[in-house]
Amino acid sequence: MTQPSAQSWEFTDDRGHLAASLDTPARVVAYIQAGASLWDLGTRPVGIFGSYHDGDSPDRAKSGSLPLDEVPYLGAGAGLGLDDVLAVRPDLVVALTYGGGQVYGIEPDTAKHLEEHVPVVVIDVGQGRTLAGVRERFAGLGRSLGTAESPDALAGLTRAESALAELTASARGAARVLALSPGGPDSVHLARPGKWPDLSALTGLGVRTVEPPEGPGANWHTGTWADAAELAPDVVLLDARANAAPAAQYAGDAHWAAVAERAVVLPWNPETPASAAAHAAFFAGLTRALRGDA
């Protein structure tokens, strides 16, 4: 009697779902942040998609080193249909969740039917996981697909973490760092550091991350530009994603002008790729700013 074929590839995702196939997946479709992460690990996606915050073209701020002229963008949010994904013949889809197992950026009905056609892996990048933990989950997925972080990238991350920790232990590391996302001419979203894996990692390396006022909002405190100015940051991590309000909407605000005059302003991607190379670049950029080199 013929025995059933064993699955040659398996991966248990952060919903506890086992994705499996007879062959190691080679054609991967991924949410743009996941795609950028896998690219850094050596996997080229055959397609990427965005979230409800995104539009008809990929957000360059989210895409890391992805060659956007070579990797098709399949759509975003409600504009991403089942047929759009299946048209590129994926044998694996990699999506994200911010907790609770809900697939981020895909219509629930689309996500449900997608799993009837192709294995789907969902990685948790929410506040319940450290930055290193997110990176390791992607590294584990990469290893299952036959790729791995390069030794140079891992060594670069170690150097970047050490340099930042060494600086924050000195007097020059006493600068106050505030992460924010512009909401418009009259509003700004101030990040709660403990709710973001990358900001929590900065705190763990000794960075003086600024805590906004208590109140509603799990990840952000939504207030005014006056609230941002009152926090008196020395370094501002400014959300560079396309869904953040453009500078033209708030550039004339006197409170923002006061912040920008006082602080070093660095672009910040809250959806940075989960790779050693991307995290090293994030830490190194802040180190340069704290040293006054930015």
Automatic annotation (TrEMBL):
The keyword RNA-binding does not apply. Keywords: Signal, Transport. SUPFAM superfamilies: Helical backbone' metal receptor. Gene3D superfamilies: Nitrogenase molybdenum iron protein domain. GO terms for cellular component: outer membrane-bounded periplasmic space. This is ABC transporter substrate-binding protein. InterPro entries: Bact_iron-sidero_bind (IPR051313).
